[in-house]
Amino acid sequence: MPRTLGWRPSQLIQIRRPITRPTKSFFSPTSLSPFSLNKTYLTESIRAHQARKMAPQLDSYFQKVDSLSDHFIERLRQAVAIPSISSEAARRPDVVRMGQWLADELTKLGATVELRPLGKQEGTDLDLPPVVLGRYGNDKNKRTILVYGHYDVQPAEKSDGWDTEPFELTVKEDGRMCGRGATDDKGPVLGWLNAIEAHKAAGVDFPVNLLMCFEGMEEYGSDGLEELVMAEGKKYFADADAVCISDNYWLGTERPCLTYGLRGCNYYSVEVSGPAADLHSGVFGGTAQEPMTDLVRILASLVDTDGKIQIKGIAEQVAPVTAEEEGLYDDIAFTMETLHESLGSKTTIFEDKKKTLMARWRFPSLSIHGVEGAFSNPGAKTVIPAKVIGKFSIRSVPDMEIEKTNQCVYDHVNEVFKKLGSKNTMKVYAQHCGKWWKASPNHWNFAAAAKATERVWGMKPDFTREGGSIPITLTFEEATGKNVLLLPMGSSTDGAHSINEKLDKRNYIEGIKLLGAYLHYVAEEPMNA
Ligand SMILES: C[C@H](N)C(=O)N[C@@H](Cc1c[nH]cn1)C(=O)O
Ligand SMILES: [Zn+2]
Ligand SMILES: [Zn+2]
């Protein structure tokens, strides 16, 4: 049974409803759409707000962030040095060490911290890394904000093509701070700790109570977390007035954004096996049916060069584009040049901005990630691999359903394999599945973040959706019944999951200011919202 984060088979109907209901809004009784929000309410609200010039204590906080910037970079250096790769069993002790380090840092700052065990990783004897639960402040007269982030990272080896050691934070002269996890998601997680520390050091009252939930398995489908979040929704997280997650990226490099949607991710394996062991291709080539030959044919059948998914029943599930949505994309600060810069090439599928944004935000995509068991080193080994496992994933969008999508994939792969007439054996299964999320930004939580963005960055944020996935987001929304905001720190050129991942010093330091300012503006939003 695949792990299906954000989805329980027995509760499919009740729990898996897409959450697109309008959340309570204090500023307008009429239903402003996410798309009209940017142009109408926010402009007025921010203007009025700027006129009042609130929160003078923010200036002291900002100055303290600047003066502590070297110390905050040092904290990031220590975090990056722990190779907390969740997908590699051998690195599990490092993931656990990272969780412990985070808990210790929080404790030193005065937070109350628990390390919650999550039991065994499904199908293994391996302990899952603990969830770091923390609370800073417990003042009934203040709002409570629940923040989530992850302290695990994607794999990284210098030999993958990194210019520097991936687990040694290297700060370049131009401000790039390179290291695995710098932007995804250690920098943003430490942003919350740094915000606490700078408030303390500046003698500025922390404006809210902060609840924290930091996990160590996000890059591997958030194994075990859904149960904890559901169970704690009305317990540990009961006081939360809203949720904030900093774990995605700006669309470009210059304009900040607030994010109200994520794609889901269904991750699949296709195993093809034949011979009992790897074979000499000179001796057995032409005599044994080769698993790799079957696998490449299966993988090749999934998607075409222009990214069009070839599996029947996927496109049919996608919500149609509405007239209102058509007008949304033009105003977004995104250019094909920015995309080329992030990509490091001009090999884009589409030539225009609107089609590109739609492909990332509101249409599904299928990516082929790799083949386990295949020869992949430099050189020319003449081997016939005995068993190969192809890995691919589908990023899902409204109104796709996890179970229906899985069935379409299984039917397609089985049919293609059958047509090959191979004597090898094949099985296809989902490793983990997480549902897409789309919320309403018409909420004081987003309004506070927009004001904070204007204050720190001097410009209005774009309202964006994200092509990536943060599987637990929907669960937080359901478990707490509160609005969830994604407030990114890093930019489009950060190279999350890629070689030379970086976070710009500017985004880290201003990002720490942004997180703190957001909490101040949250505290000022009308309590009747
Ligand atoms: C957007 C976030 N920082 C992220 O990188 N999420 C991962 C999560 C994941 C891993 N497997 C499935 N989902 C991603 O989008 O790949
Ligand atoms: Zn992340
Ligand atoms: Zn990631």
Automatic annotation (TrEMBL):
Keywords: Hydrolase, Manganese, Metal-binding, Metalloprotease, Protease. GO terms for biological process: proteolysis. Substrate binds at D247, H280, T382, R395, S469, H497. GO terms for molecular function: metal ion binding; metallodipeptidase activity. The keyword Cell wall biogenesis/degradation does not apply. Residues 262-418 form the Peptidase M20 dimerisation domain. The record marks H280 as: Important for catalytic activity. Mn(2+) 1 binds at D184, E219, H497. The lineage of its organism: Eukaryota, Fungi, Dikarya, Ascomycota, Pezizomycotina. Its cofactor is Mn(2+). Mn(2+) 2 binds at H150, D184, D247. This is Peptidase M20 dimerisation domain-containing protein. The keyword Glycosyltransferase does not apply.
